[in-house]
Design goal:
The structure is a single chain. The protein folds into 3 domains: about 230 residues, Glutamine Phosphoribosylpyrophosphate, subunit 1, domain 1, CATH 3.60.20; about 200 residues, Rossmann fold; about 140 residues, Rossmann fold (3-Layer(aba) Sandwich), CATH 3.40.50. By secondary structure, the protein is of the alpha/beta class. The model has no long low-confidence stretch (mean pLDDT about 95). Strand 20, helix 12 and strand 21 form a beta-alpha-beta unit. It has 19 helices and 27 strands. Helix 1 packs antiparallel against helix 3. About 35% of the residues lie in helices and about 20% in strands. The chain binds 5-amino-5-deoxy-1-O-phosphono-D-mannitol. 5-amino-5-deoxy-1-O-phosphono-D-mannitol (M6R) binds next to helix 10. 5-amino-5-deoxy-1-O-phosphono-D-mannitol binds next to helix 10. Its EC number is 2.6.1.16.
Amino acid sequence: MCGIVGYIGSKYAAPVLVNALKKLEYRGYDSAGIAVLEDEDIVVRKVKGALKNLVENITDKVIKTSESMSESECEKREQELIQETSKYVKGTLGIGHTRWATHGEPSNVNAHPHLNEDGTIAIVHNGIVENYAKLKAWLQGEGIVFKSQTDTEVIAHTINFYYEQFGDIFQAVTASLKKLEGSYALGVLCSDYPDRIIAARKESPLIVGLGKGENFIASDVPAVLEYTREVYFLEQKEIAVLYEDHVDLFDEDGNKIIKQPYHVEWDISSAEKNGYEHFMLKEIHEQPKALHDTIHPRLVFDGEKPVDIKFDDLNFDEAFKNAGRIVITACGTSYHASVVAKYAFEKFARIPVVVDTASEFRYRNPILKKDDVFIIITQSGETADTLAALRLAKENGVRVIAITNCVGSTASREADDVIYTWAGPEIAVASTKAYTTQLACLYLLALKCADLRKTISAQEYQHNIQELYSLSDKVSEILEDKTSIQKFVSRNFNKTKIFYIGRNFDSATSLECALKLKEVSYMHSEAFAAGELKHGPIALVDESTIVVAIATQKSLYDKIASNIEEVKSRICTTLVITQKSCNRFKNDEEKVIYDEVVKVPDTEDAFAPILSVIPAQLLAYYCAVHRGMNPDKPRNLAKSVTVE
Ligand code: M6R
């Protein structure tokens, strides 16, 4: 959701900015632009649509010169033209932006950067200026004529207003920030200050990349990884002034502050496709490693055998022992992980669990108690609604545990305890490895909680730990043979709707399976608790429908078999995802009651969600590809939803 970049150094800024913006494409956007200081003037290029449009606009050349050019030839030419942008826009200091429209339609004029009236100050902004209407009225009263419909443009004119008053750009920016309500990550360029970029953040994420003789700003680490692994994560209301050879940091009142840079461990290859056609497919295949990296460090071994779970870096044993409830909030896929967690905590630790989407939680005056254990789940650690839920819990004196994939994210800094999913950067908008590693963390917590509360025997505890540990190999096994899913998709990708049904843990998994499919293939897809079918949804089932039954819960095989027969008799197409040893889905004549089956390795029923979601992720991916969609960049979606 909006990407910001900035560069100051000795290289030409335009190619660096466009390349860095390409690394942020996964966040989702609908227009793009750059502003570069060339001699004494700020040159702005901005266009509606993809970054390739921006490259074509700057170079005045087309990327696809003939219809027969393959995708890789187009990518190669785009790279060449990105390098050529330096011939047309020549400065070594600039800011860039990919915009995801909130106020004002996607258009050339609404694209960032935005300028003050005489074009001497340029800004890029991520976030929402909640009081923009008031500020706009004030500035219009001062005679300012606005060019765009954005909330952002008020920032450029406000900075200009204070610049005219103080004659100092830093003072002008700090004064302007105090006028803004809402959220911002900001990059500011002023032609009177050709030696610096000013950056600031509140709510929306922003990092500073520290290079040698060059420095960067960006919304996320992948944008700068090609150049440096040393970064500052800016905290709430911090301001950075970047020069070629150093960076100064300040608090909101302009007092200088010192902080240690963070060394990013992962390398550039983790943020690239490595031969896979799409990030989504790559990330699906990274799940065995991601699961191992998340689970292994949390286990205590007796020889080769895992026998215990450790959270010794955290301090929540007493909280879990004495907890009255567990409350979990999150959004989207992370919320779906919390629904699985409800089943897991209630099964193993016999503790009531309340789950809620963060967007609902924050506005319904939730009842929170001091003996609640409050968990938020967020891959990015930057989701606005989830952070609001975190802050609400803390205001109510409740201790917060964050499960996140992003070291240095706002959630990781504001929560009392942090459990990392070690999935590595997830670039595809559709979450895959983040989800399964979130489940892994939640299972570890549920088992540990059960052990602390003595709700399972030592034998059961150890057996479950060993089973959890074996899941990464079982996921590898599923990924070794994708043919039945591929064949099923090639026969059925043009059906109009897909319903996922399941019971117990499988009904929780169904939610995530349906979301995955709708996000990337745009097929109409819903999840229903199988027992609810008769209460309405079955009216929708016809020959254009696929019903996928997630059927991994042994004690409920007979129940879900009846549901499969019910929908099958409405002439729809059925796919069953079940455990390897299951042979139950046959009728009295010993004939199978489904059109296709995908079997995942046997496991404890409680852990089946980690395995049964994999075929559904693949199904979503292949449906998207067959239907000609780019699964990495679904329309209208952003990777990191940093505004409400
Ligand atoms: O970064 P978060 O986990 O907080 O993100 C929450 C949702 O926006 C996210 O899971 C979204 O639903 C994904 N696109 C799902 O694939």
